[in-house]
Each structure stands twice: as structure tokens, then as C-alpha cells.
Amino acid sequence: MKLVHTLTAQLLPVLCCAFSFDGQMLVSGSVDKTVVAYDANQGIVLHSLSQHERYVTACAFSPSGLILATGSMDKRVNIWRIGDAISTDLPKAMNQGRKSLGHSRKMVTDWTEEEVSAWLQEEGLDVLVNTFKANNIDGPELITLTKDTLSTDLNIESLGLRGKVMRKIEELKFAVIGSDVPDEFLCPITRDVMKDPVMAADGYSYEREAIKSWIKTSNHSSPMTNLPLHSTILTPNRTLKMAIDRWKATL
Fold this sequence. Notes:
Elements: E1 14-19, E2 25-30, E3 35-39, E4 44-49, E5 56-61, E6 67-72, E7 77-81, H1 86-89, H2 92-99, H3 101-104, H4 113-122, H5 129-134, H6 139-142, H7 147-152, H8 159-177, E8 197-199, E9 205-207, H9 208-217, E10 235-236, H10 238-249
Antiparallel strand pairs: 1-2, 2-3, 3-4, 5-6, 6-7, 8-9, 8-10
């Protein structure tokens, strides 16, 4: 067996892959919320789609090979038309996703003020673009912001808006540290750092909401072993939570 290509267009762990039925195209979904389509023979990126708001967990082609479906933890399935009709039938969002590829493939600490503005727009925070520009917020400044500085220095009065910004910044920080996150701190389902870890009957720890949702939709099987869960009781893993909190405090 010979390695043909190593594809590295996505920044965070890849959760799913699918070949088109003719074997000419490969798509992959990732924790970084993107779907990347490759030329399977040449190993080059054809498209990068960034319309999902959470991790992309499923990709599938229709039998005809002209339709691609992508599923995500954002509870959405996006449908894409591919093939000869690509220039006219694909949603405009695809082209927008391709335009955003530049800043999303750079480290946050290397972002310019313009790239921070593009990120704000992609995250639905357009209302803050002018405020960030007026305060010359670039990548390094972005990841040092706190709720206090958002309130006192940037004069963002809305508590909900400040909270949303901080959640998005936290995601960026984890992207910066990347593989330095201890694997045991990541939920096996979402591949995100756990906030409320619980232990299931299979002996593994998961983010509470993620495993509760999994149990409701997977006929009580284990995400890790695929064997039946003999109990749906979830036990808080306080030791793990304390370890995660200590680790976060060092960032």
C-alpha cells in the first residue's frame, strides 16, 4: 500500500470523509466547521464551504453524484449541487466561503484588522465591525479581549453581545493552542473542550448535552464502542472538570 496524498486544508480534527461515486472528488468535514472538497486524484482543494455554525459530522453524495449533503452539530443539513452545473446552481454562500479562505487558514495571532472584520461578519457580529476598526483591533489584540475590556474600552453595553463575542474568542484561543489541548479534556462526540463532563455507563466521559442528545437519537448505544448502554444514568465527573478548569487558568 502506498500513501498517495496527505490533505491538510482543515485546521482542526476531521470528523468525516466521503468519496463521490466516480471516485473523482473527496469531501471532508471538520471540527473547524468547514467542508473541504478535494480533487481526489491530484489532492488539491476545489472548494471550501463554511456555512455550518458547529462541527461538521457527516458528508454524503447522492447516487447520481450531483448532490452533496453535509450535516452538522448546528442541527442543519446543507444541500449542495455539484458537477457541470456548479457555476449556476451552487448557493452564493459557497463563493463567499471561498473568499474567506485567506484569513481562516492563518493563525489568529497573524490576522490584520481587515481579517478581524471579516471574522466578525462571518460570526454574525457585523454590528461590531466599526467599533473594532475604530479601536484598531487586530488578531493579537482580539485574543486578549475580556468581558471587562469589551465593556470599558470598547463600550459594548449589551451583556448578551459581550457574552457571544467572548464565546467566539474562546473558540479562537483553542484553535491557537491546537494540539496542546489534552485529549482527555475533549468530548468524544463534539471534540470540544468539555464544560460539564459526565461519565456514561460505558465508562467514558462526555459533554452532558452532547451525550444526552446522542442517547436520544442513537438507540442508547455508546459513541465509543457502539455497544448498547445498559443504563442512561450520567454521573458528573467532578475530578475531570477541576482538571479542565485548572488547565484553562494557565492559558
